[in-house]
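Z., the sequence and structure:
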Amino acid sequence: MSIKNGKKGKAASHSAYIAREGKFGRNGKADDLQLHQHGNLPSWANDQPGVFWNAADKFERANGTAYVELEFALPAELAPAQRSELVQEFAAKVCGNKPYEFAIHAPEAALGKVSQPHAHLMINNRVPDAIERPPELHFRRYNAVHPELGGCKKDSGGRHRGEMKALATSIRETFSEIQNQYLEKYGHADRVDHRSYRTRGIDKVPERHLGHARIKQMSEQAVGELLQKRQA
């Protein structure tokens, strides 16, 4: 799982990317989209994530964070419907009542040519407070004295580095627990652990994610050797 901040000006484009919309749906790219959902959008967004993220790009403060993205691998052992159920439960758990959008992709891996299911979850950290605001006010700085005159409060504000690290660890732990519940529920013996090999006392070097571009540059022999090593 990777956890990344998305800056103002990037949200709408990234939303289109995970939803495989517009230019991101061309050349068969949309074929790997298995599920696309959203939730907790304010009424002015008209149930359209693109409207919400465009407003975030326009009205969020300069150099502000428009969204946080969790990108995470999903158990290949589970069927597509089971993975969808898993992601829906995880999103509800970590997002609460905050606006979010997620998509599940299942492209063919460059290494091994197997399905590589994963999800992108975009979360906006402005917490709804039952005050109706137009989009230009929604993303303004929070006003503690007169909340109706400011924007929705961000629940990420004021946290120091240690708190952010602890939050990231907690999110990963929650996801590992939910994965294991689903693996058990659907009859699979495998389990996952969010902790590093070092923390668990395992003397083993984890495999690095290479990505499509790097794998394409590798020779057939190098790819074959890597696959043999993985199998061993």
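The chain has one domain: 2-194. The longest helix spans residues 161-185.

Let me know what you think.
H.
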